[in-house]
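Input chain follows. Return C-alpha coordinates only.
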Amino acid sequence: SAQANLGFFDLRTGKKMRTFSGPAEDYGTSASSGVTSWPVFRWSGGEDRLFAKMGKNCVSVYECPSFGMCTTSEGDKKSYTAEALSDFRWSPSANIMALFQKEHGGGNAPARVSLVEFPSRKDIRQKALFSVAEAALNWHPQGTYLGVTVDRYTKTRKSTYTGFELFRVAEKDCPMEVLELQDKKARIICFAWEPKGHRFCIVSAPSEISGGRTTVDFYSMLTTDPKTGTVDRKVKHLTTLKSRQCNAVYWSPAGKHIVLAGLKSMNGQLEFYNVEELESMAQSEHFMCTDVDWDPTGRFISTSVTSVHQMENGYNLWSFSGKMLSRTPRDRFLQYLWRPRPPSLLGEKKEAEIAKNLKSYAKRYEDEDERLREKQDTNLASHRKRLMDEFKGWEKRIMERRAFEAKERRSLRGPNGYISDDEVEGTIEEEMEAEEVLEVREEVE
Protein backbone atom coordinates (compact mmCIF):
# COMPACT_ATOMS: atom_id res chain seq x y z
CA SER A 1 0.00 0.00 0.00
CA ALA A 2 0.99 3.64 -0.44
CA GLN A 3 3.16 5.15 2.27
CA ALA A 4 2.88 8.61 3.83
CA ASN A 5 5.66 10.79 5.24
CA LEU A 6 4.88 13.98 7.11
CA GLY A 7 7.52 16.21 8.69
CA PHE A 8 7.38 18.87 11.40
CA PHE A 9 9.87 21.76 11.30
CA ASP A 10 10.90 24.64 13.53
CA LEU A 11 10.24 27.68 11.33
CA ARG A 12 12.82 29.83 13.10
CA THR A 13 15.72 27.42 12.63
CA GLY A 14 14.52 25.15 9.81
CA LYS A 15 15.32 22.13 11.96
CA LYS A 16 13.20 19.04 11.38
CA MET A 17 11.62 18.07 14.70
CA ARG A 18 9.95 14.79 13.75
CA THR A 19 8.78 12.70 10.80
CA PHE A 20 5.60 10.64 10.85
CA SER A 21 5.62 7.66 8.48
CA GLY A 22 3.23 4.82 7.81
CA PRO A 23 0.45 3.54 5.55
CA ALA A 24 -1.37 6.38 3.78
CA GLU A 25 -4.69 5.14 5.18
CA ASP A 26 -3.45 6.01 8.68
CA TYR A 27 -2.89 9.62 7.62
CA GLY A 28 -6.27 10.56 6.21
CA THR A 29 -5.90 9.10 2.71
CA SER A 30 -8.83 7.15 1.29
CA ALA A 31 -7.84 3.69 0.08
CA SER A 32 -10.41 3.80 -2.72
CA SER A 33 -10.00 7.35 -4.08
CA GLY A 34 -6.48 8.17 -2.89
CA VAL A 35 -7.69 11.61 -1.74
CA THR A 36 -6.16 12.92 1.51
CA SER A 37 -8.37 14.71 4.02
CA TRP A 38 -6.50 17.80 5.25
CA PRO A 39 -5.38 18.78 7.74
CA VAL A 40 -4.05 15.41 8.87
CA PHE A 41 -2.82 16.95 12.16
CA ARG A 42 -4.83 19.57 14.02
CA TRP A 43 -3.41 21.99 16.59
CA SER A 44 -5.18 22.80 19.82
CA GLY A 45 -6.23 26.34 20.63
CA GLY A 46 -4.56 26.30 24.05
CA GLU A 47 -1.15 27.87 23.39
CA ASP A 48 -0.57 25.53 20.38
CA ARG A 49 1.18 23.05 22.67
CA LEU A 50 -0.84 19.98 21.65
CA PHE A 51 -1.72 18.53 18.25
CA ALA A 52 -3.65 15.43 17.28
CA LYS A 53 -4.31 12.94 14.49
CA MET A 54 -7.40 10.79 14.05
CA GLY A 55 -6.92 7.05 13.59
CA LYS A 56 -9.26 4.08 13.43
CA ASN A 57 -11.43 4.20 16.57
CA CYS A 58 -8.93 6.49 18.29
CA VAL A 59 -7.28 9.88 18.31
CA SER A 60 -3.55 10.28 19.00
CA VAL A 61 -2.53 13.43 20.87
CA TYR A 62 1.07 14.71 20.78
CA GLU A 63 2.78 17.51 22.68
CA CYS A 64 5.52 20.03 22.02
CA PRO A 65 8.43 20.47 22.13
CA SER A 66 9.15 16.74 22.43
CA PHE A 67 6.70 15.85 19.60
CA GLY A 68 6.02 12.64 21.45
CA MET A 69 2.66 11.19 22.40
CA CYS A 70 0.93 13.01 25.24
CA THR A 71 1.32 11.34 28.66
CA THR A 72 -1.86 10.38 30.52
CA SER A 73 -2.48 11.06 34.21
CA GLU A 74 -1.39 7.45 34.89
CA GLY A 75 1.90 8.08 33.12
CA ASP A 76 1.00 6.03 30.02
CA LYS A 77 1.57 7.12 26.44
CA LYS A 78 -1.31 5.82 24.37
CA SER A 79 -4.04 7.02 22.05
CA TYR A 80 -7.47 8.07 23.28
CA THR A 81 -9.94 5.32 22.34
CA ALA A 82 -13.29 6.27 20.80
CA GLU A 83 -15.29 3.60 18.96
CA ALA A 84 -16.63 4.58 15.51
CA LEU A 85 -14.89 7.96 15.75
CA SER A 86 -15.98 10.09 12.81
CA ASP A 87 -14.57 13.57 13.52
CA PHE A 88 -12.89 15.70 16.15
CA ARG A 89 -12.29 19.45 16.60
CA TRP A 90 -10.09 21.35 19.07
CA SER A 91 -11.45 24.33 20.97
CA PRO A 92 -9.97 27.59 19.55
CA SER A 93 -9.06 28.78 23.06
CA ALA A 94 -8.30 25.75 25.25
CA ASN A 95 -6.99 22.17 25.23
CA ILE A 96 -10.53 20.83 24.93
CA MET A 97 -11.47 18.42 22.17
CA ALA A 98 -14.94 17.78 20.79
CA LEU A 99 -15.44 14.28 19.34
CA PHE A 100 -18.28 12.79 17.34
CA GLN A 101 -18.81 9.01 17.32
CA LYS A 102 -21.30 7.40 14.95
CA GLU A 103 -23.75 4.69 15.91
CA HIS A 104 -22.03 1.31 16.25
CA GLY A 105 -22.48 -2.14 17.71
CA GLY A 106 -25.21 -2.99 15.24
CA GLY A 107 -27.24 0.05 16.32
CA ASN A 108 -27.11 -0.86 20.00
CA ALA A 109 -24.65 1.94 20.81
CA PRO A 110 -26.02 5.39 19.90
CA ALA A 111 -24.02 8.19 18.36
CA ARG A 112 -22.24 10.40 20.87
CA VAL A 113 -20.76 13.87 21.21
CA SER A 114 -18.03 14.17 23.85
CA LEU A 115 -16.03 17.06 25.26
CA VAL A 116 -12.67 15.93 26.64
CA GLU A 117 -9.90 17.97 28.23
CA PHE A 118 -6.27 17.08 27.44
CA PRO A 119 -3.78 16.01 28.63
CA SER A 120 -5.83 15.00 31.71
CA ARG A 121 -8.45 13.22 29.51
CA LYS A 122 -11.15 14.51 31.81
CA ASP A 123 -14.70 14.16 30.43
CA ILE A 124 -16.38 17.56 30.53
CA ARG A 125 -19.68 16.55 28.94
CA GLN A 126 -21.18 13.72 26.89
CA LYS A 127 -24.45 13.57 24.97
CA ALA A 128 -25.95 10.45 23.37
CA LEU A 129 -27.72 11.07 20.06
CA PHE A 130 -30.22 8.66 18.55
CA SER A 131 -31.18 7.95 14.91
CA VAL A 132 -28.29 10.10 13.70
CA ALA A 133 -27.30 10.10 10.03
CA GLU A 134 -24.49 12.67 10.29
CA ALA A 135 -23.24 15.50 12.50
CA ALA A 136 -20.95 18.52 12.15
CA LEU A 137 -18.99 20.18 14.98
CA ASN A 138 -18.89 24.01 15.03
CA TRP A 139 -16.83 25.76 17.72
CA HIS A 140 -17.42 29.39 18.60
CA PRO A 141 -14.23 31.33 17.61
CA GLN A 142 -13.65 32.20 21.28
CA GLY A 143 -14.30 28.65 22.47
CA THR A 144 -17.26 29.66 24.65
CA TYR A 145 -19.83 27.56 22.80
CA LEU A 146 -20.02 24.41 20.70
CA GLY A 147 -22.75 23.94 18.13
CA VAL A 148 -23.42 20.49 16.72
CA THR A 149 -25.52 20.29 13.56
CA VAL A 150 -27.28 16.90 13.72
CA ASP A 151 -29.05 15.22 10.81
CA ARG A 152 -31.53 12.65 12.18
CA TYR A 153 -33.57 9.99 10.46
CA THR A 154 -37.34 10.17 10.55
CA LYS A 155 -39.28 7.23 11.92
CA THR A 156 -39.47 5.65 8.46
CA ARG A 157 -35.72 6.27 7.98
CA LYS A 158 -36.49 7.38 4.42
CA SER A 159 -35.59 11.01 5.01
CA THR A 160 -33.78 13.20 7.51
CA TYR A 161 -34.36 16.41 9.42
CA THR A 162 -31.87 18.71 11.14
CA GLY A 163 -31.55 19.92 14.70
CA PHE A 164 -28.86 21.64 16.75
CA GLU A 165 -27.20 20.66 20.05
CA LEU A 166 -25.75 23.76 21.71
CA PHE A 167 -23.15 23.40 24.51
CA ARG A 168 -22.19 26.28 26.84
CA VAL A 169 -18.59 25.16 27.32
CA ALA A 170 -17.46 28.19 29.34
CA GLU A 171 -20.18 27.77 31.98
CA LYS A 172 -20.20 25.47 35.01
CA ASP A 173 -21.15 21.84 34.25
CA CYS A 174 -21.37 22.73 30.55
CA PRO A 175 -25.18 23.02 30.20
CA MET A 176 -26.68 22.35 26.76
CA GLU A 177 -29.84 23.08 24.81
CA VAL A 178 -31.59 21.60 21.80
CA LEU A 179 -32.77 23.84 18.97
CA GLU A 180 -35.02 22.83 16.09
CA LEU A 181 -36.31 25.02 13.27
CA GLN A 182 -40.05 25.44 12.81
CA ASP A 183 -39.73 24.02 9.32
CA LYS A 184 -38.23 20.63 10.17
CA LYS A 185 -37.99 19.67 6.51
CA ALA A 186 -35.83 22.69 5.68
CA ARG A 187 -32.39 21.92 4.28
CA ILE A 188 -29.61 23.54 6.32
CA ILE A 189 -27.10 25.40 4.16
CA CYS A 190 -24.77 26.85 6.78
CA PHE A 191 -24.34 27.60 10.50
CA ALA A 192 -22.06 30.45 11.63
CA TRP A 193 -21.15 31.92 15.04
CA GLU A 194 -20.61 35.63 15.63
CA PRO A 195 -16.81 35.90 16.25
CA LYS A 196 -17.16 38.28 19.22
CA GLY A 197 -20.51 37.85 20.89
CA HIS A 198 -23.23 35.36 21.65
CA ARG A 199 -25.21 35.25 18.40
CA PHE A 200 -25.29 32.78 15.56
CA CYS A 201 -26.86 32.59 12.12
CA ILE A 202 -28.54 29.69 10.30
CA VAL A 203 -29.23 29.72 6.56
CA SER A 204 -31.78 27.18 5.35
CA ALA A 205 -33.68 26.32 2.20
CA PRO A 206 -37.39 25.99 3.06
CA SER A 207 -39.18 22.78 2.22
CA GLU A 208 -41.73 24.48 -0.03
CA ILE A 209 -40.74 25.60 -3.51
CA SER A 210 -38.92 28.91 -3.17
CA GLY A 211 -37.26 29.50 -6.53
CA GLY A 212 -33.79 29.20 -5.02
CA ARG A 213 -34.55 31.66 -2.23
CA THR A 214 -33.39 30.92 1.31
CA THR A 215 -34.31 31.85 4.87
CA VAL A 216 -31.83 33.43 7.30
CA ASP A 217 -32.44 33.10 11.07
CA PHE A 218 -30.56 34.88 13.86
CA TYR A 219 -30.38 33.60 17.44
CA SER A 220 -28.63 34.63 20.63
CA MET A 221 -27.26 32.39 23.38
CA LEU A 222 -27.45 35.21 25.92
CA THR A 223 -29.71 38.25 26.18
CA THR A 224 -29.72 41.12 28.68
CA ASP A 225 -32.83 43.05 29.71
CA PRO A 226 -32.00 46.73 29.01
CA LYS A 227 -34.20 47.94 31.89
CA THR A 228 -33.29 45.57 34.72
CA GLY A 229 -29.93 44.28 33.45
CA THR A 230 -31.08 40.71 34.03
CA VAL A 231 -29.16 38.15 31.96
CA ASP A 232 -31.19 35.36 30.34
CA ARG A 233 -28.98 32.37 29.47
CA LYS A 234 -31.40 30.70 27.07
CA VAL A 235 -31.39 30.52 23.30
CA LYS A 236 -33.56 33.31 21.94
CA HIS A 237 -34.75 33.79 18.38
CA LEU A 238 -34.00 37.35 17.20
CA THR A 239 -35.39 37.60 13.67
CA THR A 240 -36.06 35.77 10.42
CA LEU A 241 -35.16 37.10 6.98
CA LYS A 242 -37.25 35.35 4.37
CA SER A 243 -36.83 34.96 0.63
CA ARG A 244 -33.16 35.94 0.50
CA GLN A 245 -30.65 35.18 -2.26
CA CYS A 246 -28.10 33.83 0.18
CA ASN A 247 -26.07 30.62 0.37
CA ALA A 248 -23.13 31.85 2.50
CA VAL A 249 -22.69 34.27 5.42
CA TYR A 250 -19.61 36.20 6.55
CA TRP A 251 -19.51 37.74 10.03
CA SER A 252 -17.41 40.80 10.73
CA PRO A 253 -14.36 39.94 12.92
CA ALA A 254 -15.66 42.57 15.34
CA GLY A 255 -19.18 41.13 15.33
CA LYS A 256 -22.47 43.05 14.94
CA HIS A 257 -22.32 43.15 11.12
CA ILE A 258 -22.69 40.35 8.60
CA VAL A 259 -22.67 39.94 4.83
CA LEU A 260 -25.32 37.67 3.34
CA ALA A 261 -23.85 36.46 0.07
CA GLY A 262 -25.36 34.62 -2.85
CA LEU A 263 -22.37 33.03 -4.55
CA LYS A 264 -22.00 30.68 -7.52
CA SER A 265 -25.49 30.06 -8.93
CA MET A 266 -26.83 33.23 -7.26
CA ASN A 267 -24.40 35.42 -9.26
CA GLY A 268 -22.88 37.46 -6.42
CA GLN A 269 -25.86 38.97 -4.61
CA LEU A 270 -24.74 40.86 -1.46
CA GLU A 271 -26.68 42.16 1.53
CA PHE A 272 -24.98 44.10 4.32
CA TYR A 273 -26.91 43.53 7.55
CA ASN A 274 -26.65 45.10 11.02
CA VAL A 275 -27.52 42.37 13.54
CA GLU A 276 -27.32 44.80 16.48
CA GLU A 277 -30.15 46.94 15.09
CA LEU A 278 -31.73 44.12 13.04
CA GLU A 279 -31.77 46.20 9.88
CA SER A 280 -30.47 45.88 6.33
CA MET A 281 -27.91 48.58 5.54
CA ALA A 282 -27.48 47.98 1.81
CA GLN A 283 -28.02 45.51 -0.99
CA SER A 284 -25.72 45.24 -3.97
CA GLU A 285 -24.14 42.82 -6.44
CA HIS A 286 -20.68 41.70 -7.52
CA PHE A 287 -21.44 39.65 -10.59
CA MET A 288 -19.97 36.11 -10.49
CA CYS A 289 -18.41 36.76 -7.04
CA THR A 290 -16.53 33.73 -5.66
CA ASP A 291 -14.96 35.01 -2.40
CA VAL A 292 -15.81 37.44 0.41
CA ASP A 293 -13.15 38.51 2.94
CA TRP A 294 -13.36 40.92 5.90
CA ASP A 295 -10.34 42.94 6.94
CA PRO A 296 -9.14 42.20 10.52
CA THR A 297 -10.66 45.43 11.90
CA GLY A 298 -14.16 44.73 10.59
CA ARG A 299 -14.27 48.07 8.76
CA PHE A 300 -13.79 46.94 5.16
CA ILE A 301 -14.74 43.98 2.96
CA SER A 302 -13.29 42.63 -0.25
CA THR A 303 -15.28 40.64 -2.79
CA SER A 304 -13.47 38.95 -5.63
CA VAL A 305 -13.94 36.89 -8.75
CA THR A 306 -11.06 34.45 -9.10
CA SER A 307 -9.85 32.70 -12.22
CA VAL A 308 -12.23 29.78 -11.69
CA HIS A 309 -14.29 31.98 -14.01
CA GLN A 310 -12.76 33.19 -17.25
CA MET A 311 -14.55 36.55 -17.12
CA GLU A 312 -15.07 39.39 -14.65
CA ASN A 313 -11.81 38.61 -12.78
CA GLY A 314 -10.79 41.17 -10.14
CA TYR A 315 -11.88 42.51 -6.76
CA ASN A 316 -14.05 45.20 -5.21
CA LEU A 317 -13.60 46.95 -1.86
CA TRP A 318 -16.57 47.94 0.30
CA SER A 319 -17.20 49.66 3.60
CA PHE A 320 -18.86 47.62 6.34
CA SER A 321 -22.14 49.40 5.55
CA GLY A 322 -22.14 48.34 1.90
CA LYS A 323 -20.69 51.40 0.13
CA MET A 324 -18.42 50.45 -2.77
CA LEU A 325 -15.02 52.10 -2.35
CA SER A 326 -13.12 50.81 -5.38
CA ARG A 327 -13.33 48.39 -8.29
CA THR A 328 -10.18 46.72 -9.68
CA PRO A 329 -10.46 44.43 -12.73
CA ARG A 330 -7.50 42.07 -13.11
CA ASP A 331 -7.09 39.19 -15.54
CA ARG A 332 -6.31 35.72 -14.17
CA PHE A 333 -6.89 36.92 -10.60
CA LEU A 334 -6.22 34.16 -8.06
CA GLN A 335 -6.56 35.33 -4.46
CA TYR A 336 -7.14 38.34 -2.19
CA LEU A 337 -5.74 38.32 1.36
CA TRP A 338 -5.77 41.00 4.05
CA ARG A 339 -2.64 41.52 6.10
CA PRO A 340 -3.23 39.85 9.50
CA ARG A 341 -3.04 41.91 12.67
CA PRO A 342 -1.41 40.83 15.93
CA PRO A 343 -3.78 39.99 18.80
CA SER A 344 -4.86 42.84 21.04
CA LEU A 345 -2.80 43.56 24.14
CA LEU A 346 -6.02 44.20 26.05
CA GLY A 347 -7.95 41.44 27.76
CA GLU A 348 -11.63 40.74 27.18
CA LYS A 349 -12.66 42.51 30.42
CA LYS A 350 -10.69 45.63 29.47
CA GLU A 351 -12.18 45.67 25.97
CA ALA A 352 -15.68 45.27 27.44
CA GLU A 353 -15.00 48.12 29.89
CA ILE A 354 -13.82 50.39 27.07
CA ALA A 355 -16.88 49.55 24.97
CA LYS A 356 -19.15 50.28 27.95
CA ASN A 357 -17.49 53.65 28.70
CA LEU A 358 -16.87 54.56 25.06
CA LYS A 359 -18.72 57.89 25.31
CA SER A 360 -16.55 59.13 28.17
CA TYR A 361 -13.41 58.01 26.33
CA ALA A 362 -14.68 59.64 23.14
CA LYS A 363 -15.26 62.98 24.96
CA ARG A 364 -11.74 62.88 26.38
CA TYR A 365 -10.14 62.15 23.03
CA GLU A 366 -12.28 64.76 21.29
CA ASP A 367 -10.95 67.35 23.75
CA GLU A 368 -7.40 66.16 23.08
CA ASP A 369 -8.01 66.38 19.32
CA GLU A 370 -9.37 69.91 19.72
CA ARG A 371 -6.27 70.96 21.67
CA LEU A 372 -4.08 69.44 18.97
CA ARG A 373 -5.99 71.33 16.28
CA GLU A 374 -5.65 74.57 18.20
CA LYS A 375 -1.94 73.92 18.63
CA GLN A 376 -1.59 73.21 14.92
CA ASP A 377 -3.49 76.42 14.13
CA THR A 378 -1.23 78.36 16.51
CA ASN A 379 1.87 76.83 14.95
CA LEU A 380 0.59 77.66 11.47
CA ALA A 381 -0.16 81.27 12.49
CA SER A 382 3.31 81.58 14.06
CA HIS A 383 4.89 80.18 10.90
CA ARG A 384 3.01 82.65 8.69
CA LYS A 385 3.90 85.58 11.00
CA ARG A 386 7.56 84.58 10.87
CA LEU A 387 7.50 84.47 7.08
CA MET A 388 5.79 87.88 6.94
CA ASP A 389 8.34 89.38 9.37
CA GLU A 390 11.18 87.97 7.26
CA PHE A 391 9.65 89.47 4.12
CA LYS A 392 9.12 92.88 5.74
CA GLY A 393 12.71 92.87 7.02
CA TRP A 394 13.99 92.07 3.54
CA GLU A 395 11.74 94.79 2.06
CA LYS A 396 13.04 97.33 4.58
CA ARG A 397 16.66 96.55 3.72
CA ILE A 398 15.95 96.92 0.00
CA MET A 399 14.23 100.28 0.50
CA GLU A 400 17.09 101.56 2.67
CA ARG A 401 19.61 100.51 0.02
CA ARG A 402 17.52 102.17 -2.68
CA ALA A 403 17.38 105.45 -0.72
CA PHE A 404 21.13 105.28 -0.10
CA GLU A 405 21.86 104.85 -3.83
CA ALA A 406 19.35 107.51 -5.05
CA LYS A 407 21.95 110.36 -5.40
CA GLU A 408 24.32 108.19 -7.39
CA ARG A 409 21.49 107.09 -9.71
CA ARG A 410 20.56 110.72 -10.43
CA SER A 411 24.18 111.62 -11.26
CA LEU A 412 24.43 108.68 -13.64
CA ARG A 413 21.34 109.84 -15.53
CA GLY A 414 23.02 113.14 -16.45
CA PRO A 415 21.58 116.65 -16.63
CA ASN A 416 18.80 115.62 -19.02
CA GLY A 417 17.86 112.48 -17.09
CA TYR A 418 14.71 111.89 -15.16
CA ILE A 419 14.69 113.46 -11.75
CA SER A 420 11.98 111.32 -10.17
CA ASP A 421 12.77 107.89 -8.76
CA ASP A 422 9.11 106.92 -8.80
CA GLU A 423 9.10 105.95 -12.46
CA VAL A 424 9.55 102.36 -13.53
CA GLU A 425 13.09 101.83 -14.78
CA GLY A 426 13.43 101.48 -18.53
CA THR A 427 9.90 102.75 -19.16
CA ILE A 428 9.36 106.03 -21.02
CA GLU A 429 5.89 107.41 -21.41
CA GLU A 430 5.23 109.64 -24.44
CA GLU A 431 2.07 111.15 -25.84
CA MET A 432 1.46 110.51 -29.53
CA GLU A 433 -1.16 111.80 -31.93
CA ALA A 434 -2.79 109.42 -34.38
CA GLU A 435 -5.32 109.92 -37.15
CA GLU A 436 -8.06 107.40 -37.76
CA VAL A 437 -9.94 107.01 -41.06
CA LEU A 438 -13.61 106.73 -40.26
CA GLU A 439 -15.15 106.57 -43.76
CA VAL A 440 -14.05 106.65 -47.41
CA ARG A 441 -16.38 108.02 -50.08
CA GLU A 442 -15.84 108.22 -53.84
CA GLU A 443 -17.55 111.08 -55.70
CA VAL A 444 -18.46 110.56 -59.33
CA GLU A 445 -18.92 113.67 -61.47
